[in-house]
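Q: My labmate handed me this sequence with no annotations at all. I'd like to see what the chain might look like in three dimensions before we decide whether it's worth expressing. Could you predict it?
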Amino acid sequence: MCTEQLVEISKALLTPLIAVVTTYIAYQQWKLNRQKLFLDLYDRRLKVYEEVRQILGIVARDARASYDDLLKFRKAVSEADFLFESEISKYIEEIYQHGVKLCYWTEEYRDSTQAKPDGYDHQKVCDGMHAELNWLTQQFEPAKQKFRKYLNISY
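A: Here is what I predict for the chain of 155 residues:
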């Protein structure tokens, strides 16, 4: 084989080699972009989970939540509809509704130093507060289980 033939063969192989290398680089960039998207999604989902744990922590710590706490919570998790399947949005709404009920019962509550309005049923108020407080404080583990499939990064 002469030198001219080797040059011609090298030229002929150069174009496919460049195409293969370019395809490989494009594939690696696609994989990297996909991983970045996954990490961004993970960060946003984790933020929602942390907000759920925060409102549950407020209730567990104070045995109550204010309407302001609940409105801040609702605003902080408003993105959940777009980040999760509907089960998480429904669960967040359930937490919010139990929090609102706890606020209602807390405002209704009268201790022995306060005047009681007509028709006040102390046992009913205490039972309502207890039921909502009990439900909310038992949500740490269920919340972890519900969010697990969205936040599991093990491969």
